Amino acid sequence: MQTLTNRLRYLRSREALAAVALPAVIVGKWWGEGGEIAWGMRVAALSLLVYILVQGTLYWHLKLRSITGQAALPAYFSQVFCSFKWSNLMLAGGLLVLLFLPERMPLSDTDLRWTVGLLLGALLEHINYYHYQLMYDTRAAFDHLRRHGRLRKAALGIDMARARLTRIADGCER
User: Per the domain annotation, does 174 fall within a domain?
Assistant: First the structure.
């Protein structure tokens, strides 16, 4: 139990640190580039990535509380994360539409690379939280991957499915 608790604390802390440090480092790099920068597109893509990292921080925090017995996953858990999941896709879709609009402001190759790179990072984080675990940083995770020959389902996605099944069984959802 202590190992799991430590792992959840690590995941929560790592996501929170990434949500703060990543934008600081990236924006600092942008300031150092000089010249014209399409701040709107870059910051929008970076904001989407940070938004998803904050979702991960919240999930690992709630999961840690449920494992340590402080509180079960709250009743609103599934609905909130379902909303997060769809908002991620809608925001990413909106940014992609803006990127490919013929009337959009001209973006330099560097602006386009940053924006697309950050959107790709956001997409990978979304998949990592809601669909399949993409981060394999422990021996057990690699062993599972090797043994089963496929990616693990994401913990958040599994918890959302469980919560949905519970609501259906309770007659709250059809």
Answer: no
Structural domain of 42? 2-169
Q: Into how many domains does the chain fold?
A: 1
Is residue 174 pLDDT above 50, yes or no? no
Q: What are the phi and psi torsion angles at 148 (to 5°)?
A: -95, -15
**For the whole model, what pTM was predicted?**
0.89
Residue 15 belongs to a domain: yes
Of 118, 146, 4, give the one whose Cα is nearest residue 66: 4
Are 61 and 19 contacting, i.e. CB atoms less than 8 angstroms apart? no
Q: Are 107 and 37 in contact (CB under 8 A)?
A: no
Contacts of 60 (CB under 8 A, 6+ apart): 8, 11, 12, 15
- What integer pLDDT is reported at residue 167 of this predicted model? 58
Euclidean distance between CA atoms 123 and 30, whole angstroms: 22
Task: Report pLDDT digits (tens) over 100-154.
Answer: 886 777 788 999 999 999 999 999 999 999 999 888 767 777 787 788 888 889 9
Strands (E), 36-133: none
